[in-house]
Specification:
With 595 residues, the chain is an alpha+beta fold. The strands form 7 sheets. It has a 15-stranded antiparallel β-sheet that branches. It has a 3-stranded antiparallel β-sheet with strand order 26-27-28. Helix 3 packs antiparallel against helix 13. Pathway: Glycan degradation; trehalose degradation; D-glucose from alpha,alpha-trehalose: step 1/1.
């Protein structure tokens, strides 16, 4: 059987990440960055597209148990066999120069024979490298990529079928380690690391970071795991946070809704900053703000919805026909054509992010205010135009209600900034007029009085889970009858077994795509928030607890969930889902609300 999305665990070094299956196989790894080409792409194809399995001889199925070491991103996978028990510990230590993947095998009981198969396939599984020995190491080279494999301990290795195989035994208390190191092929090999020292320092570093978490309410372990995941999805050199470490994991098994999420979305910015600040991670929040300011600098008309991890703007989308796709879900895509879309809501999200930063006491930056003034001047001219909306639909532009609400947010936050900081310069009169005009138009054209609900776009009958954010951003108070009606309508029309879809894909062309998709987890967190804000806290907590049950055995959340099959869907793990978990936990149980 093909592995399920929820079968994977994440390890990473804050510049890239790997997915490790229950069977001990590393099936996805991009080097040296999140958005680099994968050297292990079994996740989206077959074993021939690259993987690294390390497991007891004869163990064909999943492990006996696995777990992260508390407060860390260090993964322990254990097998019980008739001959004994063994543990494989996987990690990617914080890099000095080069990325390293470390695998430590430890005997727990008896004597266990281990077997390893390493198939390196560069460029997303399409290039078989040349492999040679050098100083007792295996060296694989193809084009710009060079990977070194070395072992610490007695290990028999040999080449066969364009792969590197290994076999060795471990007894109770014995340890054997492997280190996989990447570097540009034109450069000399980086300094060697001590895998056992790297394990100890990684555990210590992660636990020191985790100890800063100031959330101490119910479900603290789940909240901390989400924060660790967000930290792991951070590109440390710049502070950007990728939406997910993967591409093309399907929103429908066998379908075409397969997208590349290894980039940084502005739409996540407010929620991300709120989660980090609420949990006490100011340093990470400041780094994220700095990334945001660098990325959006320039002509406001050229503002993009997403950027590369260093702020890159060109993310051309293409298909990889040699990969069969996850569980035959084609096509496999890299890059993302949505980067060219117009989404007016991102202007509001940027303004809200920087407003939140000011409220949290982060230093005022002159260049930040200049950018905000330019964004508002642009919105005063452009807000009446249709756009593709926050869900990046490919069915044509519309007047999406959520986009207009976020234009209102942009104007509102700018006016508030002038009220609180009289020293700032800005056209307050024009911004107040924009705020009032947008509010009036949304209430007139985006609201259906017959059904007492706001709609997805002007004149439509479709609904959208993003409408649940109307009270959260302050567009209307939670007790407004129109808000209450919208919550009930969205819950009734978009619910599947109590979880929410983003919007309806039945008999509508709004997204321009065939097929269906699962329920979208962050939307259900938004529903919990909305229920709590309207006084239905018991219902909100029950929904929150049901959402926690959708995490896999090591606490990771996917983008979507299919209640009919019980399968997780979409790119994994998904930052948006983990942001939703953290913010909802603070809303329900924290001393102060996040976001």
């Amino acid at each position: 059987m093909h592995p399920r999305i929820e079968d994977y665990a994440l390890i990473g070094d804050e510049q890239t990440a790997a997915l490790v299956g229950r069977d001990g196989s590393v099936d996805w790894l991009c080097l040296p960055r999140f958005d680099s080409a994968a050297c292990f792409a079994r996740l989206l194809g077959s074993e021939e597209n690259g993987h690294w399995r390390l497991a007891p001889d004869g163990a064909e199925g999943p492990c006996t148990r696995r777990a992260y070491r508390p407060g860390t991103l260090v993964l322990d996978t254990e097998w019980e066999t008739p001959q004994g028990a063994v543990r494989v510990t996987d990690l990617m230590p914080q890099r000095d120069r080069a990325p390293d993947l470390v695998r430590v095998v430890e005997g727990l009981r008896g004597t266990v024979t281990m077997r390893g198969t390493l198939r390196l396939r560069f460029d997303y599984g399409s290039i078989v490298p040349w492999v040679r020995r050098s100083d007792g190491h295996r060296v694989a080279v193809a084009g710009p990529d060079s990977v070194w494999l070395r072992s610490v301990g007695a290990v028999h290795t040999w080449g066969e079928d364009k792969s590197t195989h290994s076999e060795f035994t471990v007894r109770e208390g014995e340890r054997v380690a492997f280190v996989l190191t990447w570097h540009p092929s034109h450069e000399p090999r980086p300094p060697l690391i001590d895998p056992f020292a790297a394990l100890e320092s990684s555990v210590a570093d992660w636990r020191a970071w985790s100890s800063r978490c100031r959330y101490d309410g119910p479900y603290r372990d789940e909240v901390l795991r989400s924060l660790i995941t967000l930290k792991a999805l951070t590109y440390a050199p710049t502070g950007g946070i990728v939406a997910a470490p993967t591409t093309s994991l399907p929103e429908e098994i066998g379908g075409v809704r397969n997208w590349d999420y290894r980039y940084c979305w502005l739409r996540d910015s407010t929620l991300t900053l709120g989660a980090l600040l609420a949990a006490g991670y100011r340093e990470e929040a400041e780094a994220w703000r700095e990334w945001l300011l660098r990325a959006v600098a320039g002509d406001p008309a050229d503002l993009q919805i997403m950027y590369g991890v260093a702020g890159e703007r060109r993310l051309p989308e293409m298909e990889l026909p040699w990969l069969a796709g996850f569980d035959d879900s084609r096509p496999v895509r890299i890059g993302n054509a949505a980067v060219k879309q117009v989404q007016l809501d991102v202007y509001g999200e940027v303004m809200d992010t920087l407003s939140l930063a000011r409220s949290a006491g982060m230093p005022l930056l002159p260049e930040a205010w200049e950018i905000q003034r330019a964004l508002l001047d642009f919105l005063c001219r452009a807000w009446r135009e249709p756009d593709e909306g926050l869900w990046e639909v490919r069915g044509g532009r519309r007047h999406f209600v959520h986009s207009k609400v976020m234009v209102w947010v942009a104007a509102d936050r700018a006016v508030r900034a002038l009220e609180r900081h009289p020293e700032l310069e800005g056209d307050r009169e024009a911004w107040e007029a924009l705020r009032d005009e947008v509010h009036r138009e949304v209430c007139e054209r985006g609201y259906d009085p017959e059904r007492n609900t706001f709609t997805q776009s002007y004149g439509s009958r479709e609904l959208d889970a993003a409408l649940l954010l109307i009270p959260r951003v302050g567009f209307l108070p939670p007790d407004d009858p129109r808000v209450l009606g919208t919550i009930e309508a969205v819950r009734a029309e978009l619910s599947h077994d109590g979880f929410l879809r983003r919007y309806s894909t039945d008999r509508t062309t709004v997204d321009g795509l065939p097929g269906d998709e699962g329920t979208f987890l962050v939307c259900s967190f938004w529903l919990a928030d909305a229920l709590h804000m309207t006084g239905r806290t018991d219902e909100a907590r029950k929904l929150f607890e049901r959402l926690l049950d959708l995490a896999n055995d090591v606490g990771l959340l996917s983008e979507e969930y299919d209640p009919a099959t019980g399968r997780r869907l979409g790119n994994f793990p998904q930052a948006f889902s983990h942001i939703g978990l953290v913010n909802t936990a603070f809303a329900l149980f924290g001393e102060e609300r996040a976001g």
